[in-house]
Request: fold
Amino acid sequence: MAGLTTGDLAPDFTLPRDGGGSISLSAFRGRPVVLFFYPKDDTKSCTLEAISFTELAPDFAAAGVELIGISPDSVKRHDRFAKKHDLTVTLAADEEKTAISAYGLWVEKSLYGRRYMGVERSTFLIAADGRIARAWEKVKVNGHAQEVLEAAKAL
Reply:
């Protein structure tokens, strides 16, 4: 993951977001943020992950934690995805893969012997000071959002 470890300053970004406008990590300095990077809107695992974070969004908000999902999909695609699944988490569109690359998540993958480039599903818990408090690599979706919530509450 590009050498990013606990205690490193989280790379800042400004990306277009669902619903219009843009979002920057630096705008949330002073409060914790969860960044969950995922490969593609409206695929089975990515949908389950986004729904899981949406279901726990009130608990994250109560803990003062912002949730941001990031994928290389377009804003238009994010808008359709959010509407279709009643998602309330912020979805950032990283079509140029600038944030994805800064976090070291644009990687070579393999499926049935075919090699291709894609997003490695990962989550970062960013502390209020802008430093990485915890990172989850190669995330398995089941139970993940709850695990992130518990870590966020422990900050």
User: Anything to note?
Assistant: The longest helix spans residues 44-55.
